[in-house]
Specification:
Blueprint (H helix, E strand, L loop, with lengths): L8 H19 L5 E3 L6 H6 L31 H11 L6 E3 L4 H15 L14 E6 L3 H9 L3 E8 L2 E2 L1 H7 L5 E6 L13 H8 L9 E5 L18 H7 L6 E6 L11 E4 L2 H14 L5 H11 L2 H30 L5 E3 L8 E5 L4 H10 L2 E3 L16 E4 L6 H24 L3
Helix pairs in contact: 1-13, 4-5, 11-13, 12-13
Length: about 425
């Protein structure tokens, strides 16, 4: 295919006419499709329904330590659930607290706690003149929403195919106002890449000026592989930090939301003993215990890490064809045109697409007018401001394959049309 930038004005005008007709035809179909969030599909949720049969009114509700999960107590979660999620993360259960249904809630509470009461005896952030947070971007929009909610100044850290630009990270943490960094280290949201061993090594060996600096390590996709024979691997960050004498520097989060039921799984925090003691001190005021019945349900359903891996193979069988369909469509329709690049993840829930500069909003709006909802452009950057108006997050998980085929083809049509219109501005 001839790159669009090599076409003359008359060729571009003729192409625009052809693409506009196709676009108008697509608009006339009255589509109503959603590819905006990384939601599990109905098939994925149905797959987990046997979990609902784990309990009946005749079940023994005590865990293997004799804890009656129907009653109060066990603030840190039942041991078997801590062990299960610890196995998933490669962490000793003694370094794990199991919470309720949402790791996002645990992350929010971690920031809120630091803001109002400080971290392990440090000055509460609310009393400081300036608080800054490093935000690798493109990144997870809900992370950025939390720090923005607390009025924390967010600093863009460009992402590479290896992870965050660590030269910048190492420089910024010399500022005592910098209190943390958001990380989705495995199959990142939205790029789908995994931090390299070198990035993880440098992250675990940071020397921040602020004693209350923390790496907020959101390991949401730690077992979410698409392939059996091609899988990314991630070093275990807590152990790396401990080896460097910096075991208090990281807070690791995870949940089963995209393993069992979205919004009805179990979540956890993995950290050093000192960090967990600090968290539990606050938790004793906040809650008596989380839903231990749901924790026990997950333990009895999955049993161990092998059970989780088997579940994830089933998820992959549903997800893999969707990712491959989108990637094949992008390559077939846009390959060689020079109007976009995209990632090719081996896991996770997203594909990151970068358009020509200044085209992402136009692509988003054209898709919306034609009945396809994408993630709002800019959402993958702090303050919802993509500095180059290029990044679009593609979430293939929720639509059916038939819907996804229509959506992917319409998306590429909108990319072509928006790109031609942009090029015509200068020709």
């Amino acid at each position: 295919m001839t790159p669009y930038c090599e076409l003359g004005r008359e060729e571009l005008l003729e192409l625009k006419k052809e693409l506009t007709q196709k676009y108008e035809d697509a608009k006339g179909k009255g589509l109503k499709l959603d590819m905006s969030r990384g939601k599990p599909s109905t098939d994925q949720l149905d797959m987990t329904m046997p979990m609902m049969d784990i309990f009946s009114s005749h079940c023994d509700m005590k865990d293997d330590q004799g804890v009656d999960t129907r009653n109060y107590g066990c603030l840190e979660g039942i041991y078997s659930a801590r062990k299960l999620l610890g196995e998933m993360l490669g962490v000793d259960p003694e370094h794990v607290i199991v919470f309720g249904t949402a790791s996002l809630n645990v992350m929010y509470d971690s920031i809120s706690r630091a803001y109002t009461h400080g971290i392990m005896g440090s000055t509460p952030w609310c009393r400081l003149e300036k608080v800054k947070f490093l935000c690798p971007a493109p990144g997870y929009d809900r992370h950025f929403s939390i720090t923005e909610h607390f009025g924390i100044e967010m600093v863009n850290i460009p992402m590479t195919m290896e992870g965050p630009d660590m030269d910048l990270v190492e420089e910024y943490v010399k500022d005592p106002a910098v209190k943390g960094i958001w990380c989705v280290p495995m199959y990142t949201n939205p790029m789908g890449i995994t931090y390299s061993e070198e990035v993880c090594r440098r992250m675990a060996d940071l020397s921040p000026a602020a004693e209350d600096f923390r790496v907020y390590w959101d390991n949401a996709y730690c077992v979410h592989h698409l392939y059996e024979d091609k899988q990314d691997t991630l070093p275990e960050i807590l152990g790396m930090c401990k080896a460097n004498g910096k075991e208090d520097m990281v807070l690791e989060f995870a949940s089963t939301s995209k393993i069992s039921f979205a919004g009805a799984g179990i979540s956890c925090l993995a950290a050093s003993k000192a960090n967990l003691d600090w968290v539990k001190k606050s938790m004793t005021i906040q809650i008596i215990s989380h839903d231990k019945i749901n924790q026990l349900r997950h333990v009895r359903y999955f049993k161990n890490l092998d059970g989780i891996k088997e579940q994830m193979r089933k998820h992959a069988d549903i997800m893999r064809p969707k990712f491959e369909l989108v990637l094949e469509t992008l390559e077939r329709e846009l390959g060689g045109l020079g109007i976009g690049t995209w990632t090719k993840p081996l896991g996770g829930y997203f594909i990151s697409f970068d358009s020509m500069e200044g085209c992402a909003k136009a692509i988003y709006n054209k898709c919306k007018e034609a009945g396809v909802t994408l993630t709002t452009v800019g959402a993958t950057y702090p303050y919802k401001k993509d500095p180059h108006d290029t990044n679009i997050r593609i979430a293939p998980s929720y639509p059916t394959l038939e819907e996804l085929k229509i959506t992917a083809e319409l998306f590429t049509l909108c990319v072509k049309l928006a790109s031609v219109e942009k090029l015509l501005e200068t020709k």
